[in-house]
Protein: DUF6049 family protein
Amino acid sequence: MAEAADFPGMTPSPARRWLRRTGALLAGAPLLAGLLQLPVSSAHAAEPTVVKEASDTGAVTVAVDSLSPSVPTEGDTLTVSGTVTNKGKQTVTNAHVDLRLGSALTTRSAIDSTATRSDDISSSTGSVVGDKYVAEFTKLTPGVSEQFSISVPVDELDLGDGGVYPLGVALSGETSAKPWERVLGVQRTFLPWQPDEAAARTRTTVLWPLISDVHMTAETASNEQQTPVFLNDDLAAEISPGGRLDQLLSLGKSLDVTWVIDPALLASVDAMTERYDIVDGDTTTAGEHQAVAGQWLAELQRAVQGKQVVALPYADPDLASLAHSGTSVTGSLNQLKAATDVAASTVETVLHVTPSTDFAWPVEGAVDPSIVKVATSAGADKVIARSDSLTEKGGLSYTPSAARPIGGGTTAVVADSRLSEAFQGDLTKASTSTRAVQEFLAQSLSLNLQTAKQRSIVVAPQRMPTAGQAQAMAEAVSALQGGTWSQTQQLTATAAAKPDPGATTKVPSRSAYPSSLAKRELPRSAFVDIATTQDRLDNFKVVLTDASRVVTPFGRAINREMSTSWRGRTTAASSFRQGVQTYLTTLTEQVKLIQKSELKLSGRSATIPVTVQNNLVQGVDHLVLRLTSTNPTRLEIDGEAYAEQGIEVSGGHSTTVKFTTSAKANGQAAVIAQLYTEDGRAYGAPVTFDVKVTEFTATVMLVIGGGFLLLVLAGFRMYTQRKRAAAREAEDNATAETDPASETAESTQDSGNGPDAESDARSGADDPVQPSDGTPDTAAESTGPSGTGERVDR
Structure:
């Protein structure tokens, strides 16, 4: 029965409960005595675990706003400044900030790993750098920030050989809930240390891009200067003091970099040095930043003297979009060729330097075979790629040189992705900027320490760095160029350097192209729009006496339609393309045919006037006006179904030309007037009007025949009357010889008042006269349309 009491679901017996309790007390007594006799130090031995658990909370944020110098040398004093902020709900007491130095990082991936956990307080923070190099705070109130600054002689850091050392800046303190000292916040950064000059310095090429968005339209004023029209005045803000492009120029001129410039930017700023207009909807205002534009260009001209300048194709066309979506549209590659051809001349004209046009730069250095093919189709034989696209698969233990032969006489200049992506994101805060600078320098030094072999490396940052990113870039490049492990090299020299035999040369397939980049490409419809605009431009320019006034602004606008800057801005890009097309259509419609109303033809033949109006400021020629009868069996034009005449019209004028027509039968026939270029392409809209033959009938023929008969009879009557008069005159003369008085009477009767003379006068008045005999041709330069139901000359 006692055993049954221990089964599940049954209550133990009182005797068994007493035995169990007694056994537990006897077994626990020695343990309790041992615990009571434990020394105090044993209790503190468990503290690391407690501190680690407490440190996971991260109640305080630490921001390192500056680290100076970025690359210390022997004898320097390292100063670390920043801000600590209590993000928790409890006041931190006995707080202090100290510096902690870790062991040298031996690989570039180790730097990546440290950077990703820069504020992780649960990871090792390294050894404290001396007790006296601290910044103390009595307390840190929740939500309050405090600044700190710690200076320590570099010799006190006890750095070893050259390398990259993780430097932790940690805040420790107590809270009322956990009244013991522990790490409450940390921020890790990097301390590059290379006291002696490297055995083989890395040859580093830094690209310094001057690229902007699209600002100019295709429109120009009709004055002699062709005043350019801008979409907005944003470019003025960029080049004004403190603006993005002003910062890039001011910072870049003190660095040894390779300038990578979009010629369209130069052309836009150059246009702003004189009169320019800004369009805002239906309102156009005059630009006012001529002085700013002139100053920026003058400073750029000085900055690039003696430096290498690489000119991108005009407007920086999107090579990947062209390769993936544009090549199926006829003429797209011709646009890239045109953009490349004009690049060098634009840079030479504005900056007075000869640029290199041998380089193509796809977006973010991402390449595939189609991109390489398009990039080199316009004459470039070097493609700036990036190492995260052309990845290494040969198992090299170091980063190889940038130059790689990829076949077909093309060289891929592979930029280092870690160095190139170091300055992305929001770098307006001092802490994020400092972190980017130190990580960049750490990666560069680590790359140099990989091998004693000298290599050439390229840094290709984002195309349009912000002002904050540019400042961080300049600080890092300046420190790098003043360091002991790197030396500057121009891009052309890097491209010509001997390739590393172990480096990969295989271009990744199309499927490997990043989907994140593909989603932002220009669609095929964009290139269809571009081809349509070019076709209309080609048809328009052949009729102009000064085609350059149209070809140049529209040609450059078409280049801008392919700009890389449209990525991710689908609506804005489409609006720009439609704006170019609309403006071109407006211009072409300034040369047109004047509408005509129905014409009435009142005889077998007549002339039909057609007026061509030119509202452009320049003349047009090489046009042909064709007049076609849709019913040549009823109405012929110059004896055929149609007739043509060449057209020339001065700017701001109109001209009227006439076509001879002949009617074969009564009724109505439609006539089509159409302008053509000399190569046979229709120009503008046709004008269709009706010609109605309303009087070409049997009755008309009878009236005409009767009139003719009357004329014949009148003539015969005149002849007989004159014959009779002559006979009478002869008889009268004979009588006069015998009767002078009779002669006098006859003379009086024939003085011109008699019936015969009156008949002669009437006969002269009835001579037939054609209505068109005394009427000149339709006056030239006539601009008015024909009247309703107009009657044409016959």
Summary: The CA atoms of residues 647 and 681 lie 15 Å apart. The chain has a mean pLDDT of 85. The chain is about 35% helix and 25% strand. The longest strand covers residues 163-174.
